[in-house]
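Hello, quick one for you while I still have it in my head. A protein chain has come my way and I'm curious about its shape. Can you walk me through what the tokens say about the fold? No rush at all, and the record is pasted right below.
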Amino acid sequence: MRCKCRQKLIRWGHTKAGTVRWRCPSCGKTKTRQKHGFRHRLLKRFLVDGDTMNQLAEKYRVHPLTIRNRLHQILDKTPPISKDLSLPDRLWLITDATHFKRWGCLLITRATTIIHPLAISFHFREDQSSVLEHLRPLSKLTVVGYTTDGKRGLVTAYQQVFPEAKQQRCLVHIRMRVQTLLTSQPKLTAGQELLNLIKLLNPIKDAVNATAWWELFSEWYETNLPTINERSHRGKSWWYTHKNLRKAARHVLNAADNLFVFINQPNSVSNTNHLEGLFGQRKPALVRHRGLSRKRVANTLLWTFHLLSKKH
């Protein structure tokens, strides 16, 4: 063990707690050997508390390169998987992904009755094979249903791993998609009416309001069907005149069977906002870790959620 001035330390008695004290013969500073678990505490300060390498170097009286090397030794490995979870008999899962441009995507699965994530994995893309790899460790669980954003690869993977589970489409994603297609100020009257209907979707919590909302939507669809199916022609070519309005209406129709599944299911949810909050907290924190390799960025995210789950 060496001092910050690179001199080899010598034994210098004991502390009041009985720990061996070491002293630098050059500068006279004393220190004790760090206990087991020091690197994990260092990682927590770096990832969760937000301390920089220079701040950690000053705190522990070492060179910043020493802090960097110790952190990289941990980030080269994935965190251990906890196997002593006490899970209920019937689970409702929530799965969502956040993307990092060309870097890949982070998939997270949580249960509505459990605080920490059940599965976290980093993949190059969000497709069926990646989601299958993500869900396989959970295949022995009894899952009654799941909430997703409705992407085909995600839903198909769930149907293979949990064929008996029921699917709930995220109502927030449906509203966001419809509003993106129609814009916040649609020019067509039909678009304005549909946007107002979609804004009433998220507050629905019981079967009575769900039935009333679907009746309103069905009435709107039948009334505006000529506008939705209106075509424009040029020579032998044709296209739907109001294609975004048609896409928005069909987006709701395609999700019809999975809009209100959560109403009759205990511990279920109608959105994936729980995971969106986690993504919103963690992605900005990656700015502090610029320069890490792709593997270390992935492990940084995995270690962050691992450390956060240890709090509960």
